[in-house]
Amino acid sequence: MPHLLKIIVTILAIGMAVFHLYSGGVELLPATQQRAVHLGLALALIFLLYPLNRKKDHLQSRVETGLNVILAVIALACGSYIYLHFMELAISLNSPSFPTVLAGVGVILLTLEASRRILGWSLPIIALFFFLYAFFGNNLPLMIAHSGFSVEKIITQVGLSDQGILGIPLGVSATYIVLFIIFGAMLEKSGAGKLFIDLAMAVVGKFRGGAAKVSVVASALFGSISGSQVANVATTGVLTIPLMKKGKYSSQYAGAVESVASTGGMFLPPVMGAVSFLIADFLQVSYASVIVAAIVPAVLYFFAVFIMVDLRASRVESTNLKKEIEVPEVKKVLRSQGHLLLPLILLVYFLLILEWAPPMAGFWAVVSIPVVSWLRKHTRMTLLDIKEALEQGVKLSLLVAAATACAGIVIGVINMTGMGLRFSGMLVELSGQNLIVLLVLTMVTSVIMGMGLPPVASYVVLAVLAAPAMIDLGVHPMAAHLFIFYYGTLSAITPPVAFAAYAASGIAGSDPMRTSFTAVRLASTAFIIPFMFVTGPALILEGQPIEIAVAVATSLLGVFALAAATEGYIKGPIMVKTRFLMLAGALLLLHVGTITDVIGVLLVITLIVWELIRVKMMRSKGINVEAG
């Protein structure tokens, strides 16, 4: 990139960061103006940063550079037009002027092209399919046809209204998500990323299978403030994957652990891959209620992964980290770097205790980071550090901005044609109004729709198409939205488009497809957790305290049993028949209900005690347990 363009990119990125900080913590703009500035700047930066052909390795030609500059200027012009005429647009979309139609065309085409550059073809193709449906859907069979719309209506509804590209998803990106991504980038720049890894090493590194457990804990901590599974893998995996390989784990297993842990970071509050804010907006509930509901499923997810890697460590006799690397002490880590946790604590305090609006909480959390960094000489952020963090945060937010804008095309068409209700009705009809069948259909739909997309993009589309069908059959709305979020996100480790597993395999030097299949096996419990909280809302903390406590306790036991049955190991290899019985007991426990819980607890505890006694007796007789 020419030096002049680099300067322009830096100016636009810093300007975008300052704008969002100002509008978040000082003066909130009208929604359409806020979204117009966000979209215009994001599209312009994408065109300047991402080449026309993503597969090109050589420098861009002058013609391509010139084209990118022109597209960036047009993007800024479209954003400026909407910003300046937002009042007129609110009342004149039914009889738009020629410049308004032209701006709408520009926004739609630029959004599709920018999304293609930064996301690949998946979401733009889906959006284009829906866009064509808006034009020609009136000629389709009656079951899926709509009444037809004029060209002007389609363009303005999709491109310029708050029901399309400028709708709620882009609004959440503009007001919440960009601030929290900047927060994460600033926190990382302050040294908190290193703190998370050091803290994980200090807490679990000294135990059996310490390297894998460090990966699980560090990825959970970093993922809680990140919005990307791949970013988690790239940040923590470069350290944890080589450590796991030194600890006798295979390359394939090491890559799988990192990808599963990094994907799980999307489920962990407070940020949850930035989807927590979208769920709150879609359901019109407080942000606090979303993260409270998400806590237990996230704990179950990481508990399952932790148990799986512990049992594998026992099987392969994996060493702790003391033999490979100096494990820091918790006190020393906290004494040296613990102050860097204060911004995260403040963020949670602002959101949950003071119940501030997310933009205000995000603004003050970002502001607190440089201040907190000055509490220790070795962590003090310079003006250059702050500038780089702001620029990096904005660049990371571009993917979310493009994804939400492109998903807005889909939502605009769905709202205009009524396709959402029709699709939900089709799902209910296909399921025969059987909830379990509907959940399986929704799971498959969510995984397919999520392939190759960030969590935000897949959730936005699924929230309109799939969640209503579940709610129609009596599923708690929060459980329905968390259900589609989980499976859309788990597509990052699900073949054939398991981009988190593929990223981890690149670091581990393992076969990508085998790594993704190992990741699915490792996360097998995660694929059951959404069914658990849909059929037992106590796991999203809906119900009486005793009911919730019992549900959580039995679910933890069920997760352990499922992990043991999957790994085939406790203190030694489990007999085949015991594994099947353990699996049955786990499934009984994972189904929230009094009768199933009682039977499951008795069965699982009996099997565990039996296996422990059997292994102990075999060892006392000098029999090689590992050989069976």
Automatic annotation (TrEMBL):
Keyword Disulfide bond: no
Annotated transmembrane regions: 7-24, 36-53, 65-84, 90-111, 118-136, 165-187, 253-279, 285-311, 356-375, 396-416, 436-467, 479-502, 522-541, 548-570, 582-610
TRAP C4-dicarboxylate transport system permease DctM subunit domain: residues covered: 107-541
Keywords: Membrane, Transmembrane, Transmembrane helix
UniProt xrefs under Pfam families: DctM (PF06808)
Signal peptide span: none
Taxonomic superkingdom: Bacteria
NCBIfam families: TRAP_fused
Listed name of the protein: TRAP transporter, 4TM/12TM fusion protein
